[in-house]
Each structure stands twice: as C-alpha cells, then as structure tokens.
Design goal:
D-Maltodextrin-Binding Protein, domain 2; 2 domains; alpha/beta; 13 strands; 39% helix; 335 residues; 6-stranded mixed sheet
C-alpha cells in the first residue's frame, strides 16, 4: 500500500485556525486511482478536507484483494470499495457500515479478443479477474447471466489489478477481462474489442460505496467522518465544474499522459455526462440489494444479505448540512 497524503499543517476551521494535530484524523483507503482521480482526489488537491476541519490520510491499494483485508484489519478507518466484499464480511460478523459513496455508477467494460463479437460467444473462454468474489469477477458473472450464459461455462484467471487485466487481453493471456472504461480509447489500436458495457447490461450493479465500522463511528470520530464526506462532495462537484483542472489532476496521478490525452478527455466526459458520480454521496441501497440477491444466486453467499441494517446515512446528512444538496445525476437513482 502507498500513503499519498498528509493534510496541511494549518487549516481554517470554523471561526479560527487550528493545528492539524488538533483536527480529527481519518485514514481513508482507496483503490489505486486511474483516470477517475480527477474526481476522486479533488478533495485532496483543493484542500477541501482541511477546509472541513478533518485531517485525511489517503492510503492507496492495488485492488480489492489488498484494500478490504486492510480495512478489516483496521489499517484504514474508511474504505472506498465495492459493497460486495463488505456484505460478505458482514455475514461472518464483521463490523460494517455503509456511510456514503463517491461513484456508484459502474464504469466497467468487458474487453475481449477481437475475434469475439458478442457476449454469447464467450462460452469456453478464459476471462481475467482479480479475487474470486471481488468486483471484476462478479461483474463478469452478472453480465453473462444477463445474456443467458451459465457463469460456469467459462474459465477464470487471476490477472491482477485493472491495467494488468486489460493487458492480459492485449497480450492474449486471457480471452477477455472486465476492467474500467479507462482503456476504451486505446482498444482499437491494441487489437481489443469492447464487447459490452456494464452500465448497459447490468445497470443496477453498483461500483463504489464508502464503508466504515461502528467501532470507528463514535462521537469522537464522527466529526472527522462528516468532514471526509463533505470534502469528497465538494471535490467531485468542483471537478464536474472545472474539467481542465480535473484532467490535469488525472494526468498527474496516472503519469505519462498529457491532460488533453484522448483517454483522459473521454473518461472525464463519460463520468460527468454518463451519470456515474454521487454528487451528494448518495448510498445506492436499491443497487446493493440487487447485489446481495446476485451473490446468493451465484452461490457466493449462503443467504441474501439484509442490507438495510448495514446502512448509516446520518453522517452523510450532516455533511449535506454543511455543503448543501444538489440535483443528483446518478443514472441508477436512489431510494
């Protein structure tokens, strides 16, 4: 894992200024950001967390296989992750609370060897995933089911994080893989087919939620959690209003690309105009219920997880009181 932020030492808080060591601290875990970093890291870039009176330490992980175990082990206080692993962990007694989201819309594509022209042709194929119960694997299975294919009719290969899974297809190590849409603009040049978009095939499948624990969500830490959520909302909203700054941040985070690179521009437009973002940190409860049912159907979970008791919307509501509520653009809608 990699630490990428220590908040500024002095921040304007309420009526005066306090030293960072006097601010509540939240260790915030995220998957290694890609072209979405213009939205997801803008709170850090613009100092919105400090403005909200919270010292946020961002810790990055390569994938869910690293991030969620680290969260369960207490290495981070809040994790931005797909709800799948958290719901499964709750069945084993893990202390889990869903407190918000950043990007509930699923920007995944199913990439394949160019010889494939439709999902139904993937029977017998080898598909790149990460952990067996993590987002890339379950997304593939959900897409196959939606197209009438038994998920057991393909072979799954652990192919690493998002870029590694895409490259596995490019290099013909696997026949297909699910990965973020970041690579769509280069697919033709790489001889890769964008076989389907998750948004079109399984629109109820959620991407990111914000997850914490009852143990951390105490009165002592509550102010920090509210500040984290408020700053995230400010950052995502700022990015939607300032595309040039968002693209500069994405290019800086990814490295090796200019802000006007076609991949960065296309991904920004997709996120902003495609309804992927949670401008109000809205919790996709209905979509999480869909996922709970899917886990049970796939045999990943012995029962359908009861989602409602795992949701605590109080901190998000407090954050909205600080930054105000705007019109939601999330394509999935919320309850």
């Amino acid at each position: 894992m990699k630490r990428i932020l220590t908040a500024v030492a002095v921040a304007a808080v309420m009526a005066g200024s306090v030293f960072a060591q006097d601010l509540p601290t939240v260790r915030y875990g995220i998957y290694e950001p890609g072209f979405d970093s213009g939205f997801l890291l803008m709170a850090q870039e613009k100092g919105f967390w400090a403005e909200q009176g919270v010292n946020v330490e961002v810790v990055t992980f390569k994938s869910a296989a690293q991030a969620f175990p680290a969260f369960i082990a207490g290495e981070v206080d809040v994790v931005q992750a797909n709800p799948s692993e958290a719901m499964l962990a709750s069945l084993k007694g893990a202390d889990i609370k869903f407190i918000g989201s950043t990007m509930p819309g699923l920007n995944y594509a199913l990439y394949s060897n160019a010889r494939f022209s439709q999902l139904s042709e993937l029977k017998g194929a080898t598909i790149g995933i990460s952990a067996p119960t993590a987002l890339p694997a379950v997304v593939v299975k959900a897409m196959l089911i939606a197209e009438g294919i038994n998920p057991d009719e393909v072979t799954y290969a652990n192919s690493g994080g998002s870029p590694e899974r895409y490259l596995a297809v490019v290099n013909s190590v696997t026949d297909a893989a699910s990965s973020p849409s970041d690579y769509m603009t280069r697919a033709d040049a790489d001889g890769v087919k964008v076989l389907a978009m998750a948004k079109d095939v399984i629109p109820d499948y959620p991407r990111y939620t914000l997850i914490s624990t009852n143990a951390f969500l105490t009165s002592e830490n509550g102010k920090g959690v509210v500040g984290l959520l408020a700053g995230l909302m400010q950052g995502i909203r700022y990015a939607t209003d300032n595309p040039e700054e968002a693209n500069v941040l994405s290019a800086k985070t990814v490295g090796g690309l200019e802000p006007n690179d076609p991949s960065i521009l296309a991904t920004y437009d997709e996120f902003k105009n495609g309804g992927y973002l949670a401008l109000n940190a809205e919790i996709p409860v209905r979509q999480m219920k869909y996922l709970a049912d899917l886990q049970n159907k796939l045999g990943i979970s012995p029962m359908v997880v009861d989602v409602e008791p795992l949701v605590d919307d109080s901190y998000r509501q407090q954050a909205l009181a600080l930054v105000g509520e705007v019109t939601s653009t999330y394509y999935g809608g919320v309850e």
